[in-house]
Amino acid sequence: MAKARGAAGAQGGLAGALNSALKEHGGIWFGWSGQESEDEAGSMNLQRSDGVTTATIDLPGRDIDEYYNGYANSTLWPLFHYRLDLTEYERETGKGYERVNERFAEAVVPLIEADDLVWVHDYHLIPLGGALRARGVSNRIGFFLHIPWPPTRLFVSLPFHERLVRTMLEYDLIGFQTSEWRDSFLHYCSKELNAEVDEDSGTVRFEGRSVIARTYPIGIDWDHFQTQGRTGESRNAHQRLLSSSRERTAMIGVDRLDYSKGLPERIDGIGRFFDQHPDRVRDLVFIQIAPPSREDVKSYQDIRLLLEQKTGQINGARSEVDLVPIRYVNRGYSHAELFGFYRGSKIGLVTPLRDGMNLVAKEYVAAQDPDDPGVLILSRFAGAAEQLNVNGQGAVMVNPYSPDDISDAISLALDMPLAERKARYEAMIATIRDDNVQSWTERFCTDLKA
Ligand code: ADQ
């Protein structure tokens, strides 16, 4: 018997992106099932559904605690999102992380055939490439980091930082979302490892090996998303949103409930807007969709409480019998429904404190009516800012730590004339449509093969 402990959920950006890539190219998706096994060595489950083959293994409770909730989500995730204050440095969980990566390598080796490309994803699996090499796998192996790479000064707070980066240098190709994260990685290699680094090509030479680090900004599955947007389910969601907000402008936020997404800071910004424009409380309704994630980790329980408190305070102070300014919803929706909600919202509020890319920003714009588009307010600290802040056009950029900045941006968006909304939309839409998840996969795999 296995019981669910929730891994890469349906609401994760990574899961959605990879599913699309595999449907297109075939291959096997290997990883943790999200289930807890009762015995030490969970067996492998092979399944085929919707054109995608998955090979997953269950993990014993201790591994889930040390590897997934521990090192991956209480050490690497906060550290890579610049949150030293939340980062736990426990040697035991570090050992669990390495142990599980070894176990994954052991399990996946028999599935790898001579000509296969091996593509490893994200911070949970950084040492997997090295563990595969140690087992004689000589295939091309690539790694993509979905989250930021922190500046060297922060990264060196990790005990054994060098050990982690040395395993990264076992890959042939390393992909980052933005040049900022890539440059931080190269800086570390040159500063701390004394590796020979060629910034232009991204080549790192170290102890006889050579690896290339490049940027591959991830995109959405444009065609699939547009198809979802044409369904009855999507139109229904759109209608529900419009009729429930009546004459008020709907502003939407959609995020996993995670401290990196800047949710309490966002609520503070909205509070500031209401303080500065009490006459406009009736003009706006803010809808925050935030399904809980990683609920076994304390910092996630804390952020949930904080958010409930903050929305409660504003709603208590600003509600009328016929009006609630913030609708805070703790559940997931299908992409069809999200499309409808985005389309019905004249403002999209995406204000992470730090984010590898942020696909919600791209989905919001992709769902807009080109003849009457809404306005995207975007944090300068989201990876997506590198693509969506186009010469001062595109998204309205904000500093998510500043409630005044968020308040000003909401004012600007509420009153923005149609011509400017269209110009900003036009500045973003081509890259969102063309630099999609298919072209991202294509670019990475072509470079990995080369
Ligand atoms: P995430 O941190 O999960 O991804 P994001 O890129 O925004 O963040 O992707 C979230 C995805 O989940 C979107 O496709 C969104 O539609 C979906 N989602 C969010 N809330 C939902 C809800 N309530 N119901 C249904 N679906 C919901 C990580 C990194 C990001 C990076 C992605 C992809 O943290 O920086 O962009 O991987 O690389």
Please supply descriptive tags for the structure shown above.
alpha/beta, Rossmann fold, six-stranded mixed sheet, 19% strand, 2 domains, single chain
Kindly describe this structure.
By secondary structure, the protein is α/β, with parallel strands linked by helices. The chain folds into two domains: 4-219 and 437-449, 3-Layer(aba) Sandwich (Rossmann fold); 222-434, Glycogen Phosphorylase B (Rossmann fold). Helix content is 46%, strand content 19%. The chain has 17 helices and 18 strands. The protein has helices at 13-25, 61-80, 91-108, 128-134, 152-155, 161-168, 179-193, 222-229, 232-245, 263-276, 298-318, 335-344, 359-366, 385-388, 403-414, 418-434, 437-449, and strands at 3-4, 28-37, 44-49, 52-60, 118-121, 141-144, 173-176, 196-198, 203-206, 209-215, 249-254, 284-289, 326-329, 347-350, 375-379, 389-390, 393-394, 396-398. A six-stranded mixed β-sheet has the order 5-6-7-10-9-8, sandwiched between helices. Helix 3 crosses helix 4, helix 8 (222-229) packs across helix 12 (335-344) and helix 9 (232-245) runs parallel beside helix 12. The chain is globular and about 65 Å long. Mean pLDDT is 93; it is low at 1-11. Adenosine-5'-diphosphate-glucose binds next to helix 1 and helix 13.
